[in-house]
Structure formats: C-alpha cells, structure tokens
C-alpha cells in the first residue's frame, strides 16, 4: 500500500515541527550563497550566521525587495553535487516513496480545488532525459515569475557570471564659449537598474553601485582640471524601446516594474527606500536630476537642467571622467531570483540581446534568449515568452521545459550557470518562499529548508519551479504550474504540498510513467 504523503500523518506534524528547528540551524550552516557557490564550501570554510529575513515582495504582485541575506563575494564554483546539498539533511517524516508510488502520491494532490482545471507538472532526475512524473508536462502554461529562471540561465550563458554593468560620466561637447566654467559632461547609463541612491548595503556580497560615489569621483576629476561648473546631459540609449511591454497590465508601474530604460536609480521607485513605491515615468531624467544635486554637494555646480542627449553624444571615444560598476552578474542573478526582481529581469533580457548582437528591446531580448538556450542544446518547443520577468499573461512555458533548463543549470559541465540554482529561494527561510506563511504550517512544513524553488504569481496563475533532494538523497528538479487558479492562496498551498511530497519521495532516479 502506498504511504501517505509526508505531512499528512499526525506523527509527521510533530516531527516536522522539530525539523523546522533543525532546519534553522542547517540553513545557517549551509548558507549563505554567493556567485554560484555556498560560502561554507570556500577555503577556510567560513560561515556567516546572520539569519535570512523574509522580504516584502510577492513575485509580480509586488515589487522586488532588498537583498535577502548576508552573502560573501567571490567568483568560485563547485560541482552540482557539492553546491546543491540540501540545507536540511536526513529522512523526512512518513518514510520514503518508491518511484512506482510517486504517481499515486502526487496524482491526488493535483486535484486540489484551488489549482483549477489547467495544471501541469514535470518531475525529473536532472541527470536523466526521462520524466519521473508527467502531468501535462508538455502543455503550454503562463509561467509568471518562473520565467526569470529562463532569463537567468540565458544571461549567465551569454555574459558569464563575472560580468558587471557600468555607469559612466564622460566629457561632452563644451557649451557657451567653451571655457572650463561651462564644460559639459554626460551621464551614460549602462543598463544597471540597481544603481542606488541609498547608503551602503549591509550585505557584503550584494553591493549595488552608488550614485553618490559616481558623483564624488566625477567632481574630483573635474576639480583636478580646474572645473567647478558644468552642464549635464544624460544618455540612456544603451536600451531601446518600448519601455513598457504592450502585453503588460497598465497598472504594473504602480509598484511592480519601472519603464525599462538604460539609466535609472533605485529601480525607478518614486520613494527610493520604499519597496512598494510606485515607479517614476521617466527614470533616466530622475536619475540625472539626482546626480546633479550630488555633484553640487561635492562642489561642482550644474548650470541649468540636465538634458537628454542623443545616442551619439556619448560615443565610445569620449573621455571618461568616472565610473561605477554593478555587482557581478552571478550575484545579480541570485538577487533577482530570490526576491523576484522584475526590473533586473527585464534589464538582463536586454543585456542578453546586446551580447547576442540584437537590438536591446523586448523583441530583441526574447530572440537572443532563444539563441543562447539553443546553444545549450535545449529544445525550445516549450518556450514562447514576450518578456524577461514573466509579467506578461501572454507568456507560455511548458513544465518540462523548466525542468530541462534547471537540469542544464545543475549539470557539472555548466558551472557558469550555477547561480540560476543557488539564487532559488529556500522554503520557509529566504525570499518569496519566506512570505505569506509559506512552509510554516502542516502539511508543507515538512518541506521547509528542503525545497529550493522560484515562485510565480499573477492573477489566476501560481507556479513553482526548482529542486529538492528527496528522502533517498536523489536530487530532483520539478515544475508545478496552474494558470487557471480560482483561489491564489489555496493554489499556493497546493503547490507547496506537492513540493513537500517530493521531499519525502525515495524515487531513486528510476523513470516511471505518470
């Protein structure tokens, strides 16, 4: 007789409560992560004990939030088997399921009323081409923010984990008589939405570039030339238009995403320190005005208002005065996935386009993503998206495609893709899997600390895609998708219960029909 799903037995509830206490200690020991590797695996095996704090975002329902945990910087990688050890080891309550029992255990859970009538599930051993469980795995589903996994893998493949995005100040054509007092400068965006007006981050592994640092360096360079007054232009032409995807809901700029432009600060928030703040309509102009004020504070006055310049005015040959750079791409990817950062996802889509020689637009980015994933030998039949964040209700991805792309990121021959996995939220502890009480009560409590997955949420859409190490120690990748969900809260509970069931499975990697 098939065993009950972990978390359904009375003893499992008691054991899971104890397990959550153990998981807290193991999350500390296993994390935090940086650039595709667990910090505790580095030389010296140092560990950082700061407890992760749940953030205020909920995928595409709310904007992104600050970095979720303390991480150390450094571009080292580990093989998948080492880098993806579970944060909580050991058997889970309820015993191990065999591969033959997996379908009967998961099948009833797929019928949860909150999921609705359109549900797709794929579960696989990442080392195998066969699916362990297939419930409409080849179907077409709205992915919501699980689309960010696709964007992450494409960006890492196109650019490499050590890429950084640079915001520069260059000398422009002089105004007026051409004297030093009326010299002109241009603030040139490099497509870094994380450029910040806030103070230094408390997270040593995620330090966004500082606009004030750029102003200070610029002022010092100008003053060294005897210049104390300038006109200021700004150039955001690294990205093309449109700035908003035509398939997005009109209200998204109320807190979900800013217009996608090549120059912005604080991800375009009207109130920089407020994660739920509405976004400004012209992020580049706002960034330039803020920069002008900071230049003045450092002793260089800006004459008149900052003005937008054409793409040619800040040509590559212009003399550079100062620059600041973003965190490494691996750290940006981890941050994007953990807190579900829409602005960063859309910027990365355009950077993939630039790396692929295509226009830095939605259309160019989507085409470039397909190019990059094709180079990874992924079958693209299950991918049809229109953006990088998953905000579009018109996006479609098959569950089996998400499983394949996660398997590719887990492969030992693709270490540069590892941040697409290490950035996945940890159930009950970090990012969007530490919100709304997820994995804090039975029956999903037993999955706390074991499930690592990207969440997705739009109106009527609930998705979860990630990895878990099952009861037998087998690494599994999964995608759970419901895009006609009548009850969002109930659907989240259902997908969390499904993921928890996988944590109690002892499938051993043998393929089984589903």
How are the SSEs ordered, and which strands pair?
Blueprint (H helix, E strand, L loop, with lengths): L9 H21 L2 E2 L2 E2 L41 H4 L15 H11 L9 E6 L6 E5 L11 H13 L6 E6 L11 E6 L22 H14 L4 E7 L47 H15 L3 E2 L4 E2 L11 E6 L3 H11 L2 H14 L6 H14 L7 E2 L11 E2 L1 H12 L8 H4 L29 E7 L2 E9 L5 E8 L5 H16 L11
Parallel strand pairs: 6-7, 7-8, 7-9
Antiparallel strand pairs: 1-2, 3-4, 3-15, 5-6, 5-10, 11-12, 13-14, 14-15
Helix pairs in contact: 3-12, 4-7, 4-8, 4-9, 5-6, 8-9
Q: What does this entry look like structurally?
A:
The strands form four sheets. Strands 5, 6, 7, 8, 9 and 10 form a six-stranded mixed beta sheet that branches. A five-stranded antiparallel beta sheet has the order 4-3-15-14-13, sandwiched between helices. Helix 4 crosses helix 9 and helix 5 packs across helix 6. It has 514 residues and is an alpha+beta fold. Strand 1 and strand 2 form a beta hairpin. It is 29% helix and 14% strand.
């Amino acid at each position: 007789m098939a065993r009950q799903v972990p978390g359904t037995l009375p003893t499992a509830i008691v054991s899971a409560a104890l397990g959550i206490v153990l998981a807290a200690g193991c999350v500390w020991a296993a994390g935090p992560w940086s650039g595709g590797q667990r910090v505790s695996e580095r030389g010296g095996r140092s560990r950082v004990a700061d407890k992760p704090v749940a953030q205020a975002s909920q995928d595409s329902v709310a904007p992104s939030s600050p970095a979720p945990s303390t991480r150390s910087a450094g571009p080292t990688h580990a093989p998948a088997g080492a880098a993806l050890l579970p944060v909580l080891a050991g058997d889970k309550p309820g015993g191990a399921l065999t591969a033959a029992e997996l379908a009967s255990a998961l099948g009833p859970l797929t019928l949860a009323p909150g999921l609705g009538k359109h549900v797709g599930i794929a579960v696989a051993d990442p080392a195998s081409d066969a699916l362990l469980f297939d419930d409409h795995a080849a179907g077409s589903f709205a992915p919501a923010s699980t689309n960010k996994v696709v964007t992450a893998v494409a960006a890492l493949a196109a650019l490499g984990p050590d890429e950084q995005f640079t915001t520069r100040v260059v000398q422009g054509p002089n105004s007026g008589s051409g004297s030093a007092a009326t010299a002109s400068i241009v603030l040139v965006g490099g497509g870094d939405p994380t450029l910040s007006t806030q103070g230094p981050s408390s997270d040593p592994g995620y330090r966004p570039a500082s606009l004030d640092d750029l102003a200070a360096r610029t002022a010092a360079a100008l003053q060294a030339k005897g210049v104390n007054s300038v006109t200021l232009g700004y150039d955001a032409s690294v990205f093309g238009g449109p700035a908003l995807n035509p398939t997005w809901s009109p209200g998204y700029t109320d807190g979900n995403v800013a217009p996608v432009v090549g120059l912005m600060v604080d991800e375009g928030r009207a109130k920089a320190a407020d994660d739920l703040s509405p976004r400004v309509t012209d992020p580049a102009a706002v960034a330039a005005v803020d920069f002008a004020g900071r230049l003045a504070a450092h002793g260089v006055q800006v004459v008149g208002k900052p003005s937008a310049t054409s793409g040619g005015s800040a040509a590559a040959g212009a003399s550079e005065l100062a620059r600041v750079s973003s965190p490494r791409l691996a750290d940006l990817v981890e941050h994007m996935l953990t807190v579900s950062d829409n602005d960063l996802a859309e910027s990365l889509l355009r950077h993939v386009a630039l790396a692929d020689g295509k226009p830095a637009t939605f259309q160019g980015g989507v085409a470039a993503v397909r190019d990059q994933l094709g180079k990874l030998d992924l079958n693209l039949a299950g991918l049809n998206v229109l953006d990088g964040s998953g905000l579009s209700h018109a996006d479609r991805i098959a569950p089996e495609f998400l499983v394949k792309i996660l398997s590719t990121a887990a492969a030992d021959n693709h270490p540069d893709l590892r941040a697409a996995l290490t950035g996945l939220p940890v159930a009950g502890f970090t990012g969007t899997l530490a919100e709304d009480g997820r994995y804090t009560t039975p029956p999903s409590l037993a999955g706390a600390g074991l499930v690592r997955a990207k969440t997705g949420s739009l109106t009527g859409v609930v998705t979860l895609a990630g990895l878990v190490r099952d009861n037998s120690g087998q690494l599994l990748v999964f995608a759970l998708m419901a895009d006609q969900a009548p009850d969002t809260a109930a659907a989240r509970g259902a997908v969390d219960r499904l993921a928890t069931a996988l944590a109690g499975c002892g499938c051993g990697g043998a393929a089984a029909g589903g």
